Backbone:
């Protein structure tokens, strides 16, 4: 019989089937791991009432799991797309947050190059590299303004002294 053949088999899964069948002769499900020549399969068996027959059915594990693999693949793809969108949003927000103060600094530097000594950069509350750069720029503008004002006063005083000397010599 099939059971006696299975008990004598060298294939461990077939022996396991014989054991499961003796334990539950009315029906059950057995998993065969497979080997180099045979893929893994699932086999269901049931005794046919009022006969001495056993109905067997088998299906390969890959056929059973194929819809699961597909569902996992689809979900992984959707997750990857969501992560990409999230990355792009975070990148856009961070880059805008970083470039906005630099753009403000560029505008102030351009005004300074055109002679506007009142151009200053608004300094953020957080002390980071951009904060330090803005503070340094504002300090530079203040020193430049102070230096130019001192030079203007000195030149004006010199001109007034020259005019006074000229007026004195004309008198």
Residues:
């Amino acid at each position: 019989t099939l059971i006696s053949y299975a008990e004598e088999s060298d294939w461990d899964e077939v022996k396991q089937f014989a054991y499961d069948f003796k334990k539950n002769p009315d029906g059950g499900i057995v998993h065969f791991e497979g080997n180099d020549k045979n893929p893994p399969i699932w086999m269901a068996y049931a005794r046919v009432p009022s006969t001495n027959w056993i109905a067997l059915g088998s299906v390969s594990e890959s056929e059973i799991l194929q819809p699961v693999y597909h569902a996992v693949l689809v979900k992984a793809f959707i997750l990857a797309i969501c992560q990409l969108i999230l990355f792009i949003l975070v990148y856009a927000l961070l880059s805008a947050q970083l470039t906005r103060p630099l753009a403000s600094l560029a505008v102030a530097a351009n005004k300074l190059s055109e002679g506007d000594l009142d151009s200053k950069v608004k300094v953020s509350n957080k002390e980071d590299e951009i904060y330090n750069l803005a503070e340094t720029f504002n300090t530079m503008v203040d020193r430049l303004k102070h230096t130019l004002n001192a030079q203007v006063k000195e030149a004006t005083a010199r001109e007034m002294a020259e005019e006074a000397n000229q007026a004195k010599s004309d008198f």
